[in-house]
Amino acid sequence: MAAIYQTAYPRIKSDITEDELGDVYTPTSEDKKFALRHCKRTSASFLGLLIQLKITQRLGRFVNLGEIPKVIITHIKNQCRSRVTLKDLQTYYTSGAKDRHVKLIRRHLNIKAYDAAKTSELAQIWALEAATTKEALPDIVNVTLEYLVKERYELPAFSVLERICQAARAEVNTRYYDQLCGFLESESRQCINDILRSSTGLNGFGWSTLKNEPKRPTPRNIHAYIQYLEWLTSLQALLPTDLGLPPIKHQQFINEAKALDYAELMKLKLSKRLALVIVLIRHQYAQTLDNAADIFIKLLLKMDRSAQKLLEKYLADHQKQTDHLISVLSGTVKVYLDKPDSVTAFDPVLGKNSDQLLQMCEKYMAFAGNNYLPFMVQLYKKQRSTLFRTIEILNLASATEDKDLLNAFQFILKHKKRRTEFLSIQSEPDDPSSRNVINIRWIRESWWKLVTGKSTKSAQVTEVNKTCFELCVFERIAEELSTGDLFIPYSETFDDYREQMITWEEYEAQLPTYCEEVGLVAGDTEFTTTLKKSMETSCRKADSQFPEDELVRIENGNLIIGKPKPDQPLPEVEEIGALLRDRLDKINLLDVIINVEKWLNLNKHFGPLSGFESRISDPELRFVLTVFCYGTNIGPTETVRSVQGVSRKQVAWLNLKRTTEARLDKAIAKINSEYKKYRLIECWGSGNSVSADGKLWDLYEDNLLSEYHIRYGSYGGIAYYHVSDTYIALFSRFIPCGVYEAIYILDGLLNDESDFNPDTVHGDTQAQSTPVFGLAYLLGIKLMPRIRNIKDLSFYKPDRSMVLKHIQSLFKEPIKWNLIEKHYADMMRTAMSVKAGKITASTILRRFGTKNRKNKLYFAFRELGRVVRTMFLLEYITDVDLRKTIQAATCKSEEFNEFARWLFFANGGKIPANLRHEQSKIVKYNHLLANFAILYNVNAMTEVFNQLKSEGYNITRDIMAEFSPYHSEHLGRLGSFELDLTKQVKPMTFELLVD
């Protein structure tokens, strides 16, 4: 069911303002002339005709007198100076004149009557068309409404329209179910039936195990997960390449399938049951491929870290041996300098152990220059079978014409079972002049000697060390999977991202409009020329302003920025702060949730996933308890103990059956849009900027996402938030510890659905990456991170010949403008694809995480980023106010993190769920709860400030700017709560009495 307020269906507001009455319901001179042509001014018919006309102009349909608020009737009556009574109007609405006027109004407004037969048939066609690509009932209703309005039809009652759209959605979904079932041949249908014979199925694989997620990557767990992937691969082979589902329908069917247990699944009609299994198989196959690739990459990273630690231990343990070798070397050099007549003169130094000394030297030299790779070779032997098994099943493909790495993998796969130390790479091993069957020139210097035994790459190589070459190939595969040069067909994260770009035809057609929207110059030469001029201007401006800032100086070629003196707080702040804390009413978190829910009615966003389930009892109660349960981490069992009169099932049911990350994001966006209406937040910021920061959340170790984080010293994942300069968090995402956080910094701005629409993002030091700067610039986003190590950053010249008076020593090499101009089209197409939602910014930036000889686009984005970052750094060092703004913004992120963690107080702050999508939902529940509390606090603070102002206190915007909405002293987290959903709550107080 769709609530009318969720759609664009026109309705009369219950709280009509004077402005709305004047703008919408005031009869114009043309309206009055129309009415006078058919009625006398003093008659009830005149007033009735005008009322019908204005209501129909607003609603697109005719309504009964009882549906029209009296305030509208009174307003129209006053505007035409009528003395007609309400009783006269009631008589008019039951007379034949009213029906005649309906026809006149239709003709005047050029609208056609809604015919129950013909128009309904048209509406059904439009609804069916909308339902093919949309799932949410309000969206289908809105599309059908657009067609009705466009074709100038009178609107039917909302219930009629809703029934048509519901029937259309059911028909379209049934069509898709039948389509998916049609793909099944007898063999594949038999396999799915085997899955559905019981919840566990044959061989331990059934409906329950179909939704498996990987546990912590131990050898046993990896073995079991690869078996699961092999089973999914056998099922995947029975399905068509393309399921033929629109993305929205595909995701909807996935959500439904994940929410169903075995008993619920078996209650569905056969076609839907089979369709959901098919879609879930494809989804789980894609997810499992991603997870297997993650396991593969993590195993190699773990081996890399362990090898580095072993090298450190080796060097520490053999320090005495190293000292002895140095002693022998120095003695040998001294003997040599004396120019001895015979070799025997070295005997007192070398002794009888010269062979042993040589072995010690060679062993030491193997690890010289912090070369830890020999230790990786030792560790590799334990993981060899797992790595082979994983990569074999991933079915790797190359995104470039370079197939050397894949050929090398096929080579080691072919010789996997050979028991030999060295492998010949020649086509004819017995013929020294035969050609090599694989190209190994891609091997890096650090690996070259270990793999080939040769010191230089110019030497001819005819054989390779089998173990070292295998590990070298695997390490390179992990790198190229991360950069996108290798991809995994059918996966999600590791699929060929180039296929997700907009077409070149779309690029050519949309480029001028896109450039106009984001403020860029279209055309490769024009773009480069304009950007170069801007950079030259920035350099000269910064050079002229540099001496004016006493806090910034250059010493010995290094840039040093001093800290400004902190602003002294206003003397009234402490007094007002004490009054504020005293007047904020004590309230428990459950009542905070109830208050905000009464204001915003957010439970309506959490309808049934399928859209066809019956209504549940007490949806408001269940929503309130669910947010409290998972937002605080107290859990269903403890929630039932704290709140009387509810069951554990009631608490957990909404989360399992009706909640998705997307729906939580919509609820968060709704809160944020209401929050933006408060005038108080204008004291804290404009809302045009956000700061991005991550915080470690503890997880149990038994899942793939959990990873040990060196900086935090524990296992967990990172909750990454985008916090507005007005203190509220706009977007959140849960990511693994091991990833580079900055790649997600742009996603929050692009995915924000609230009314804020920020265009500036601040971040921590990680956000200084040049590709991030480059992509942000093309997306029209201003990236302004906090700078901690500015002396280590490079400034780039717009031109080698540029000479500056004060800051010349900061600059190093010039920008390669030809690289930007050459790859302009590729970069713009990438940015336009991100903006269009075809691919995420994080997916692109993940590919740019490492330098890559094949990916020319990386170097182009890096060069563009150098330009943008240099211009930002020049502004940063010459604008003390900008530095203060950035520091304040990043502090707000850190404060939000602490406030969110304060709310997530139960179970030691450790997320209990082991399923990845449940972990992400819990982080968003906490984000939602934090925004509940922030919204409530801003409302309460507005009331207090208004009270204090009316009592004569000196309340100014500067004073209010000193306070944040992260107050927690008045919020109760613990205790036995009484749940009262019947109590009335005061309306929201948006206005501020302070000028």
Automatic annotation (TrEMBL):
Keywords: DNA recombination, DNA-binding, Transposition. Pfam families: DDE_Tnp_Tn3 (PF01526), DUF4158 (PF13700). InterPro entries: DUF4158 (IPR025296), Tn3-like_transpos (IPR047653), Tn3_Tnp_DDE_dom (IPR002513). GO terms for biological process: DNA transposition. One of its GO terms (molecular function) is transposase activity. Residues 6-168 form the DUF4158 domain. It comes from the Bacteria. Residues 591-977 form the Tn3 transposase DDE domain. NCBIfam families: transpos_Tn3. Belongs to the transposase 7 family. This is Transposase. It comes from Marinagarivorans cellulosilyticus.
